[in-house]
From TrEMBL:
Alphabetic keyword roster: Cell membrane, Membrane, Transmembrane, Transmembrane helix
Record localization: Cell membrane
Pfam families per the UniProt record, alphabetical: FtsX, MacB_PCD
Keyword field contains ATP-binding: no
Annotated ranges, domain MacB-like periplasmic core: 20-233, 434-647
Gene Ontology cellular-component terms listed: plasma membrane
Official protein name in the record: Antibiotic ABC transporter permease
Membrane topology according to the record: Multi-pass membrane protein
Keyword Nucleus: no
Alphabetized GO MF terms: transmembrane transporter activity
InterPro entries reported in the protein's UniProt record: ABC3_permease_C, MacB_PCD, Macrolide_Exporter_MacB
Domain ABC3 transporter permease C-terminal, chain residue ranges per copy: 294-405, 685-796
Length: 804
């Protein structure tokens, strides 16, 4: 019996070779896209899976009701109180700095080593790397202790067995207490060296408001997560509000409303990368992943719809076969299994082709996403094969049940071709297919419009020809180093001007604090800077004046704010210039002397945040945060100027340190890469969807028109013109297209509007994509169907009428 089924299957594949190729092509493309996106998803989900303690380690993300946002930072007293009063909390680890780099010196050589972190002493309790040399016990107990990775140990000492060796960096002598091997698996926490954040933690020991630390908690295995979160709010957040509100004249509730945090959520370590809304080591993009996975599944669904449509359209060709098989005793169940087998063969062949195609495309996919994915995860094969089985059932069972229900007498008489049930089923499935195609066209055009809008938007500053250079902060008075470098670099040929700004567009490096005015408080970013930095960046002054180096008050307690700052307080510009504010970064009041136009520093997706600009000498601790120098270059010979700067830097400014530099406009442009990739992917998926849909439409229209060739021959004999015949044959498909697009418009509007809500700078929903979708699908439908309709109009009359 199985042998007979296979023979029948391959006879039908050969007979309907066009629909067989279309089904293979569509399913192969759909499954390939699904596999690639699934591999991308699994790669994002695989971070920190190596850690044996991952099920007990949680990152904290705090919610600030006033700003409707999340933060990943915490203060030392808050973490210590949580560990002391909440029984479920066994331990905690703090992170103060990451991505650090130092020039390390031994007896034999000096090497610049980067990618270090400063943490609390119990780091290795949370991250048990493989120990190579030394001991993890008390490895970070001393302020002069350093743990090295095998890579950094080889860089500095030339070998890995270096526990007990001494080296010098950061102005101190250090002893190597441990050498560890970093995990080969995916992880965002791969420090090349680790030191104790001793000085910073010593200064912040009692500072409840110094939210300078990322934090992980280790909970007991049976801990109730919701209960721990509630205790954190009650025992830590409310307690902080209580001790801070004393003497301020506000209640605990009011204090939390003004300053937060108001609630929190604990996220498992291995979920932080993709699922956390705020994470010290950087977030993934769950929304984009969900969109891509959904779209890839839609393509597979579209291919399955093609399969169903073509199989049901071929019903009349197989009606007599089914009638004969039923007449000689075949049961309904055996017919269903036969048709399911035929569907499975196509799906399995597509699966094998998609595996090969995915392997071929994987290098390009890895390059696109800057990953190193390999097809060695069994989950990929399991889930993709499960998709094959699902497609087999969906695309095979419907036609199988449909065909197996034919009545033997009617099919043997040849009456099935005119069944209204068959027509309604095909038309309904075709409508669904065209709805999906319409959504992809609308979505693609909206995405293109949004990306173009962000790229064309006036950012409010000009970073053109401005070279940003990081310098080492490992000096006693970094602001004096900046002033020396400024004086010396100004003499280099090709440099037009020199300045410093803490808040640099595209850098992602910033600090913030509360700013109070009477009974109102907002959160604002810090913009310590040199006097001319805003002019240097071509930011426009809206009201008031710039900071003036000739006015002593401008180095004591005067600030410039942006428009967002004024709007957040609800002031007019004139009111703002009369007010004094109290920023959380200082104990004295500051007077607003100027207001600048908003300019975007972080991302084209995010709104401009309130920010205060002030001279770096105005606040004592801010002068220690002078960490860069920015150089505006003359346009005539930029390459030669950069070479002169690099030579000076490596020979005189910071010998032994890398020349860490970039042009600000190019760095900020990297913010657009993510959205440009989304645009490219949506365009590719759009093309795939249209190709699959149009090929399916062509095959379906071919089969349906072939069923009407006798009618065409009769009408042509009665005098119908070719034009009338073509219009008559295509009219049904055009009506289906029109109905499908009209149904898809409100669905597409809702989904794309939800996508646009994530953008602070967004377009208004355009009308053009909806109109273009309708026009384009009508044109494509007419073009595809009319090809076969034109061929039908040239039908051989004798062939179809000789027996009438």
């Amino acid at each position: 019996m199985l042998n007979n089924w296979l023979k029948i299957a391959f006879i039908n594949y050969k007979k309907n070779w066009l629909s067989t190729i279309i089904n293979l092509f569509g399913l192969t493309i759909g499954l390939t896209g699904f596999m690639l996106i699934l591999m991308h998803w699994n790669d994002e989900e695989s971070y920190e899976k190596w850690n044996p303690k991952k099920n007990q380690i949680y990152g904290i993300q705090s919610y600030y009701k006033k700003d409707k946002g999340y933060g990943s930072n915490i203060s030392i007293p808050m973490a210590e109180r949580a560990a002391k009063l909440i029984p479920e909390v066994k331990d905690f680890v703090l992170f103060n700095s990451s991505g650090m780099g130092f020039k390390m010196t031994t007896k034999n050589k000096t090497v610049y080593q980067q990618d270090g972190i400063a943490t609390s002493e119990n780091f290795f309790n949370f991250f048990p790397f493989k120990l190579i040399s030394g001991s993890f016990k008390n490895a970070l107990k001393s302020e002069n202790a350093v743990a090295l990775s095998t890579t950094s140990a080889k860089n500095v000492f030339g070998r890995t067995n270096v526990a007990g060796e001494s080296l010098k960096f950061n102005g101190k002598n250090y002893i190597v207490t441990a050498v560890y091997e970093l995990p080969k698996e995916n992880s965002l926490i791969k420090p090349e060296f680790i030191i104790l954040a001793y000085e910073q933690m010593k200064n912040d020991k009692e500072a409840w408001g110094s939210f300078n630390y990322g934090c992980f908690f280790m909970l007991k295995k049976d801990a109730d997560l919701v209960a721990v979160q509630n205790k954190l709010v009650k025992e830590v957040f409310e307690y902080r509000a209580k001790i801070n509100e004393e003497g301020s004249g506000v209640t605990i509730e009011k204090y939390m409303e003004l300053y937060g945090p108001n609630s929190c959520e604990l996220i498992p370590l291995d979920k932080l990368k993709l699922h956390a809304k705020a994470y010290w080591f950087g977030n993934g993009d769950l929304q984009t992943m969900m969109i891509l996975l959904t779209l890839s599944i839609l393509i597979v669904v579209l291919s399955a719809i093609n399969f169903i449509n073509l199989k049901t359209a071929q019903a009349s060709q197989r009606a007599k076969e089914i009638g004969v098989r039923k007449a000689i005793g075949s049961t309904k169940s055996s017919l269903v299994f036969q048709f399911l087998l035929e569907a499975f063969i196509i799906c399995f062949a597509s699966y094998l082709l998609s595996l090969a195609l995915a392997e071929l495309l994987l290098p390009s996919f890895n390059k696109f996403y800057d990953k190193e994915i390999v097809m060695n995860d069994w989950h990929i094969y399991f889930y993709s094969f499960s998709m094959v089985l699902a497609v087999t059932l969906i695309s095979g069972l419907i036609p199988a049940m449909y065909l197996s229900n034919f009545k033997a007498i009617e099919t043997l008489k040849g009456n099935f071709a005119r069944s209204k049930n068959g027509i309604w089923l095909r038309n309904g499935i075709l409508t669904l297919q065209l709805m999906i195609s319409s959504f992809f066209i609308i979505g693609g055009l909206v995405v293109n419009s949004q990306v173009k809008h962000m790229m064309d938007k006036d950012l409010g500053f000009s970073g053109k020809q401005i070279l940003y250079v990081n310098f080492s902060e490992n000096v006693e008075k970094p602001w004096l180093k900046y002033e020396r470098l400024k004086n010396e670099l100004s003499k280099i040929e090709g440099i037009e001007s020199v300045s410093f700004g803490e808040a640099v567009p595209g850098s992602g490096r910033f600090s913030n604090s509360n700013v109070d005015f009477r009974d109102k408080s907002i959160n604002a970013q810090h913009g310590s800077m040199d006097f001319d930095y805003l002019q240097f960046m071509n930011v426009k002054l809206k009201k008031g004046r710039w900071l003036n180096p000739n006015l002593a008050s401008d180095t004591i307690a005067n600030v410039i704010v942006n428009e967002a700052f004024v709007k957040k307080f609800g002031w007019t510009d004139d009111e703002a210039l009369k007010n004094e504010i109290r920023p959380g970064f200082d104990s004295k009041p500051y007077h607003i002397v100027g207001i600048v136009n908003d300019f975007n520093m972080w991302s084209p997706k995010t709104a401009v945040e309130p920010i205060t600009f002030f001279h770096y000498k105005e606040t004592t601790w801010k002068r220690f945060g002078v960490y860069n120098i920015q150089l505006k270059l003359k346009a005539d010979d930029i390459d030669a100027t950069v070479k002169r700067i690099k030579k000076y830097w490596q020979e005189k400014a910071e010998p032994g340190y890398p020349f860490d530099s970039y042009f600000i406009d190019k760095k900020f442009a990297e913010n657009f890469v993510k959205y440009q990739k989304q645009q490219i992917l949506f365009t590719i998926l759009n093309a795939m969807v249209l190709m699959v849909a149009l090929l399916g439409l062509f095959a379906l229209s071919s089969l349906m028109i072939e069923q009407k060739l006798k009618d065409v021959a009769i009408r042509k004999t009665l005098g119908a013109s070719d034009k009338a015949l073509i219009i008559g044959l295509t009219k049904q498909f055009l009506w289906i297209t029109l109905i499908a697009v009209l149904i898809s418009i409100p669905i597409s509007y809702y989904l794309m509007n939800e996508w646009l809500k994530d953008f602070a700078y967004r377009i208004d929903m355009p009308v053009l994509p909806f109109v273009l979708s309708l026009i384009l699908l009508l044109i494509l439908t007419f073009a595809v169907v009319s090809i076969k309709a034109y061929q039908a109009s040239k039908v051989n009359l004798v062939k179809y009428l000789k027996y009438e």
